[in-house]
Amino acid sequence: MNRKIKTQLLAAIFMSVSVITMAQTKTENPFGLVYGDAITENVKGKVNIHSVTYKLNGIEIAANVYTPANYESSKNYPAVVVAHPNGGIKEQVAGLYAQRLAESGYIAIAADASYQGASGGLPRNVDKPANRIEDIRGMADFITQFDGVNSEELGLLGVCGGGGYSLAAAQTDKRFKAVATLSMFNSGVVRRNGYMNSGLSTVQDRINEATEARALEAAGGEVRYSADIELTDEMADKMPYDLYREGHYYYHRTHAHPNSTFRYTTSSLLDLMEFDASANMDLINQPLLMIAGSKADSYYMTEEAFKKATGTNEKEIFLIEGATHIQTYYVPEYVNQAMNELNEFFENFL
Questions:
Q1: Which member of 56, 72, 86, 113 lies 3.0 to 4.6 Å from 161 by CB, making a disulfide possible if both were Cys?
Q2: What pairs with residue 288 in β-bridges?
Q3: Residues near 229 by Cβ (< 8 Å), separated by ≥ 6?
């Protein structure tokens, strides 16, 4: 398959407008969690999960707060905000890392982004960088008021697209005393240029599609969606990138959840395509840890952002040997390695 055909295939799969919706199996976990070793009940003396809601700019946000074993509201605990990937929700990888952080003694929060998951907002699946950044700040607003949280010991962990938005949030929100990313994904650059610059030839076409979608919405017409297609295993297996191949199986097979979808409003591209998570990285003066798999084809995004983080004297890249992007979400040995680094990092800087 030549490069042109590959690019066209990816464009058709991830950027086309479709009326197809993904049918997914409803989770059996009582809290809706789909990751391994997830909490199934709140037991006294162990890590507990608290489903909460709060308002952010008039939108009701759905979140899960994880509290450590033997949590007492009268004590002081460090806290970590966890931002989920693009297309992901709080019950998947963000919840896994939030639970593991709680097991290490932190109060952790994972929330569904505005317009996504179980959070409110219409039309559904708006995916604008400004919203995602504000969602992260909103989690900080809420968790710093939670009983037992020491607001002076607040950390931030962003996964995949949530990692890129976490970098942007931390540039100006100094409540975050330490910032970490896992398998960081630069959503804006990829939506504009394509993954590994595979969509450069179609940039203007996609900008025009987004412009038309915005105009249609403004006129009261239909809401158009991109990446709204039912993907088969055969289609996924033909993709040239590990992230997309393995992402299909993670999100649609092994860790599927009815609230999780890759689709986003086509009009969101007007905002996404002008966003770059690696811009203004010099504004980050907090300690910075960026974790990625050594085999991740998305690593180039972590590397670029890290090089631009010239405003902090405490920064580190940690590579998980042998891991791809998606494998850092769930493979026990890779999650354990990431958690060992995160525990040391947050212990040192919170």
A1: 86
A2: 179, 315
A3: 12, 13, 16, 18, 20
- Tokens describing residue 153: 């010991």
Domain extent at residue 182: 3-349
- pLDDT tens-digit profile of 226-250? 999 889 999 999 999 999 999 999 9
Does residue 198 carry a pLDDT above 60?
yes
Beta bridge partners of 60: 55
Query: Looking at the DSSP assignment, which residues form a beta bridge with residue 159?
Result: 182
The two three-digit tokens of residue 177, written as one number: 């005393």
- Write out pLDDT tens, residues 57-112: 999 999 999 999 999 999 999 999 999 999 999 999 999 999 999 999 999 999 99
Spell out a b/e string for 75-88, using b for 16 or more CB atoms within 10 Å of the CB, else e: eebbbbbbbbbbbb
Strand partners, 40: none
Q: How far apart are CA 119 and CA 93, in angstroms?
A: 17
Q: What CATH number does the domain containing 178 carry?
A: 3.40.50.1820
Distance CA 167, CA 133 (A): 9
Per-residue pLDDT of 280-334, as tens digits, reads: 999 999 999 999 999 999 999 999 999 999 999 999 999 999 999 999 999 999 9
Confidence check: pLDDT of 13 > 60:
no
Is residue 75 within 8 Å of residue 314, measured between CB atoms? no
Predicted confidence at residue 76, as pLDDT, reads 97
**Amino acid at the residue 85:** P
State the Cα–Cα distance between residues 182 and 305, nearest whole angstrom.
Answer: 13
What is the distance between the alpha carbons of residues 344 and 276, in angstroms, rounded to a whole number? 29
Contacts of 231 (CB under 8 A, 6+ apart): 13, 248, 252
This prediction has a pTM of 0.92
The count of domains in the chain is: 1
Residue 147 to residues 39, 56, 66, 75, 110, Cα–Cα distance (Å): 21, 19, 12, 8, 16
C-alpha 116: how far from chain center = 12
